[in-house]
Design brief:
two-stranded antiparallel ribbon, 39% helix, globular, 116 residues, alpha+beta
C-alpha cells in the first residue's frame, strides 16, 4: 500500500450522492488494472467481480450511481471477510483518483436475476 492510499484510510468517506455521468473507459480500465494487482487474502475463496452500469443491476434502495462493482464468490465461511479485505483496497484506490464509493449488500445483476 502506497503512502497516498494509506492516508486515504483517514480521510475517505462513504457517499450517498453520486454524479450520474458515466466514467470514461480509460478510468474503468485503470480500476480494472488496479484490481488485477491485488493479492487475495485466501485464494481458495474464489471471488469474482464485474463492473456494470446502473441499468444492469437490481436491488432495494439503489443510489443513482453510474456504475456498480458487483462482487461474488462461492459459499465459503470467510467469503465476506475476503471480499471486504480485497475490495476495500479498491475503495481506497478509487478515493485517491477522485471517485466516491459506497458499500451495498443485496445488489444483483439483472442478468442473473432474470435467469432464475
Amino acid at each position: 500500500m502506497n503512502e497516498q492510499m494509506y492516508s486515504a484510510i483517514f480521510t475517505r468517506a462513504s457517499t450517498r450522492k453520486f454524479d450520474a455521468t458515466l466514467l470514461p473507459s480509460e478510468t474503468l480500465d485503470q480500476i480494472e488494472a488496479f484490481i488485477s494487482t491485488l493479492e487475495p487474502l485466501l485464494p481458495d475463496v474464489g471471488l469474482t467481480y464485474k463492473v456494470v452500469n446502473a441499468d444492469q443491476v437490481k436491488g432495494l434502495a439503489l443510489p443513482k450511481a453510474p456504475h456498480f462493482l458487483l462482487i461474488s464468490g462461492k459459499e465459503h465461511p470467510s467469503r465476506n471477510i475476503c471480499a471486504g479485505f480485497l475490495f476495500q483496497h479498491v475503495v481506497l484506490y478509487m478515493y485517491t483518483i477522485g471517485l466516491a464509493a459506497r458499500w451495498l449488500s443485496g445488489v444483483k445483476s439483472k442478468m442473473i436475476v432474470e435467469a432464475q
